[in-house]
Amino acid sequence: MFHIYCPWCQEHREEEEFHAKGPAHLARPKNPENCSDEEWGDYLFFRDNPRGVHHELWVHAVGCRKFFNITRNTVTYEILETYKIGEQPAKRAQADVVSLPLRQDAANESVKIKLGGAS
Ligand SMILES: [Zn+2]
Question: Whole-model pTM?
Answer without folding.
Answer: 0.73
